[in-house]
Amino acid sequence: MTILERFVVGVIANSDYTDLDAIYLKNRIMALVGEEQVNEETDETFLIPLKNRLVDIAVENGKCGILQEEKNCLGAELMDFITPIPSVLNQSFWQTYNESPAKAIADFYELSQKNDYIKVDAIAKNIAFSTPSKYGDMQITINLSKPEKDPKAIAAAKLAKASDYPKCQLCMENEGYQGRINHPDRANHRIIRMKLGEETWGFQYSPYAYFNEHCIFLNTEHVPMVISRETFVQLLDIVEMYPGYFAGSNSDLPIVGGSILTHNHYQGGRHTFPMEIAELTECFTFKGFDSVEAGIVNWPMSVIRLTSENKDDLVDLAEKIRLAWRDYSDDAVDIIAYTGDTPHHTVTPIARKRDGKFELDLVLRDNHTSEEHPDGVYHPHQDVQHIKKENIGLIEVMGLAILPPRLKEELQEVEKYLLGQEHKVADYHLDWAKQIKITHPEVTAETVTGIIQGAVGNVFARVLEDAGVYKTDVTGQAAFKRFIASVGIK
């Protein structure tokens, strides 16, 4: 069969199209990719490789530009043939959900992979490993899934006409959007509408997932991130609606927040993070909240865990803690709530449902800066920024490091250094590399990768310690307990 015929057969097999639509589909596809070369023979049967070849043919036929962004737009348009329109998909999702929430979620996840919205092949390029620490195993990824920007694409983006549509990559207007040089392709993107209280929200998957079933819950309105009582209500509603998923929010302040503060959203998925399985070092009960179990989590960041069968009590206590933290200062340990009228305190909340009980982790955050730490007192300090200098957001808070792609080659050079080979170790890694060599004089070609991975894990644990407002030493934990006592415990 020809590549065009194979693709049409695949579209019909994976959509509501029937054999009667075959001629129509051929013509619509040729309109996109051109009529030359589409009749080349192929044994390929999988849709995504067929789509990739059709995109290449379109480039050769002059129907598509040579930049990766242009190819992506056409690829998404081709995969849109197997993607139900939003109204049909939403109706199907909720009909299935009424019978089986798990099946509805699984079906939507499968579609999002099958239609190449979730970039499965690209995600597989990521380097992932776990390393032990005194807080439990840390999960490390070097993110290679997002392609580096082509200099030609960067130049083209500068020349592209400015547009505020969609306003950001989380807006509902991305659904079905063709894409352009400076905004990603979204023709095959779909969003499930859902109610959180009186608000309409969307549920979608992340195209470049950092963990299993990585999803995003987004406000249908373009409104900024705000952590409030309603945040806790919504997160707990989500984990009840989506069995097996956690739900969490980045905090709502710069430095300690996520990369998109302009659009209110949460993240979730089916993944067990190191922080989730970390044990409690202290247990206590807050006054007036006998139904809520509370404790300090054994974690490099400062985490209060609340557990209860009663969602209302959980929300009320979480809000009480948030408000107390918002205005709490302790000069003895450099905890500063305000500089003038500028607030510094917020929380990173994470919700789960485990063993029939609701669970909320409140991670205390402080974004004030100093002369010594201009990037943030509770931001990765200079001596660890050779590994991680970006903000510590929700995912990293929970123990999964998202490290930059530069580290793939840079760590290979450190390996060469440790093995006494010719190397080009970056200057900012050199002191670290020397320390590793002193610590591991017995390094061999068989052990060097594991040693480097362990060293990276140690740095990441230190990064989280830097981000922790209360340090794990005696002084820090005593100060942590002072704050908890100020909220009111039995």
Automatic annotation (TrEMBL):
GO terms for cellular component: cytoplasm. Pathway: Carbohydrate metabolism; galactose metabolism. It comes from the Bacteria. Residues 240-433 form the Galactose-1-phosphate uridyl transferase C-terminal domain. It catalyses: alpha-D-galactose 1-phosphate + UDP-alpha-D-glucose = alpha-D-glucose 1-phosphate + UDP-alpha-D-galactose. The keyword Cytoplasm applies. It is found in: Cytoplasm. GO terms for molecular function: UDP-glucose:hexose-1-phosphate uridylyltransferase activity. Residues 17-224 form the Galactose-1-phosphate uridyl transferase N-terminal domain. Keywords: Carbohydrate metabolism, Cytoplasm, Galactose metabolism, Nucleotidyltransferase, Transferase. Coiled coil: none annotated. PANTHER family: DUF4922 DOMAIN-CONTAINING PROTEIN, GALACTOSE-1-PHOSPHATE URIDYLYLTRANSFERASE. NCBIfam families: galT_2, PRK05270.1-2, PRK05270.1-5, PRK05270.2-2. This is Galactose-1-phosphate uridylyltransferase. It comes from Streptococcus hillyeri. The lineage of its organism: Bacteria, Bacillati, Bacillota, Bacilli, Lactobacillales.
